[in-house]
């Protein structure tokens, strides 16, 4: 069974906001840019326990609970050396060295860290904001402004033509593998509008028979990805947007040479097509 980054069963992510004081064995996230403080324990990269860093940090911000463990966000003092054995690890490149739970926790914590960092002050009056005690929300004590986490919807589209699927490669990104058409939903659009617009903008094609496949939180970019399959409607000649894509083409199911990555919705959709479950 294919998995995605959010599939951590039998572990359980508790989304409810239940702040509690940290226990010694709870975990702390420290981010600097796109790096995170972690230690190699001989088998995997792991986060610091609260007990290991408590002396160096103030009251950490509660994030969420997975199984029995609560996860917190804090800032590690710039002037201090990292604790013994800990280093700053790039968020993107070391997924294979981490447990499934940590990969998911890290993406979610990063999403929250970006949001907390961008909302230290009220956008209406400039006062310093405070975390609410009941909800995952920031509150302005002066003007009452309430600020909720920002989640940006975006679509992933598998365009099909019988036994063929349209796959693309992006310009100027680290990720060189095959992808599907993707893009952010704009103000005033439905997700279906986004599907039609992005396919037209990126490859100049029209689509019909839109079907919803599934969704995925993608915290690295504050997204909620919505996956759709759509069938080609009309001519199949691709007119590539060279600023966005370096390559796009039609691939037969049998030609798809892409192993399951256990992470992304894109890969999950391509695998479902390869197996003949979607068209
Ligand atoms: Zn305010």
Helix fraction, binned, reads 10-25%
Strand content: 25-35%
Detail the poorly predicted runs. none
Q: How far apart are the first and last residues' alpha carbons, in Å?
A: 19 Å
CATH superfamily of the largest domain: Nucleoside Triphosphate Pyrophosphohydrolase
Rg on CA atoms, Å: 21 Å
- CATH level-3 fold name of the largest domain: Nucleoside Triphosphate Pyrophosphohydrolase
**From the coordinates shown, what is the CATH architecture of the largest domain?**
Alpha-Beta Complex
**Which geometry do the CA atoms define?**
globular
Number of strands: 17
Q: What is the arithmetic mean of pLDDT?
A: 93
Largest sheet: 6 strands, mixed
Number of discrete domains: 2
Task: Look at the helices and sheets and give the structural class.
Answer: alpha+beta
Task: Describe the fold and architecture.
It is a single chain. The protein contains 4 helices and 17 strands. It is α+β, with helices and mostly antiparallel strands. The chain folds into 2 domains: 13-118, Nucleoside Triphosphate Pyrophosphohydrolase; 152-274, Nucleoside Triphosphate Pyrophosphohydrolase (Alpha-Beta Complex), CATH 3.90.79.10. The longest helix is centred in the middle third of the chain and has 19 residues, at 100-118. It is globular and about 65 Å long. The chain starts with 12 loop residues before the first strand and ends in a 5-residue tail after the last helix. The model has no long low-confidence stretch (mean pLDDT 93). Zinc ion (ZN) binds at residues 122, 124-125, 127, 140, 142-143, 145. Zinc ion is lined by residues 122, 124-125, 127, 140, 142-143, 145.
């Amino acid at each position: 069974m294919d998995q995605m980054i959010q599939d951590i069963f039998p572990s359980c992510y508790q989304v409810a906001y239940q702040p509690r004081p940290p226990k010694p064995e709870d975990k702390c996230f420290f981010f600097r840019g796109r790096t995170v403080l972690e230690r190699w324990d001989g088998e995997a990269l792991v986060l610091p326990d609260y007990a290991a860093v408590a002396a160096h940090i103030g009251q950490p911000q509660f994030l969420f609970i997975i199984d029995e463990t609560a996860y917190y966000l804090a800032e590690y003092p710039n002037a201090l050396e990292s604790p013994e054995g800990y280093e700053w690890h790039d968020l993107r490149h070391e997924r294979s060295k981490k447990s499934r739970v940590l990969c998911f926790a890290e993406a979610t914590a990063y999403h929250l860290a970006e949001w907390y960092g961008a909302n230290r002050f009220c956008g209406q009056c400039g006062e310093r904001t405070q975390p609410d005690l009941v909800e995952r929300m920031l509150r302005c004590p002066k003007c009452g402004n309430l600020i909720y986490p920002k989640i940006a919807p975006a679509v992933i589209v598998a365009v099909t033509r019988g036994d063929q699927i349209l796959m693309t490669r992006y310009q100027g990104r680290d990720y060189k593998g095959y992808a599907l058409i993707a893009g952010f939903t704009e103000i005033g659009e439905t997700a279906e509008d986004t599907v039609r617009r992005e396919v037209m903008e990126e490859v100049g094609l029209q689509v019909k028979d839109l079907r919803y496949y599934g969704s995925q939180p993608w915290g690295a970019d504050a997204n909620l990805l919505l996956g759709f399959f759509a069938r080609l409607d009309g001519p199949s000649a691709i007119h590539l947007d060279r600023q966005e894509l370096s390559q796009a083409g039609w691939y037969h199911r049998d030609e798809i040479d892409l192993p399951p990555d256990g992470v992304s919705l894109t890969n999950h959709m391509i695998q479902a097509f390869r197996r003949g479950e979607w068209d």
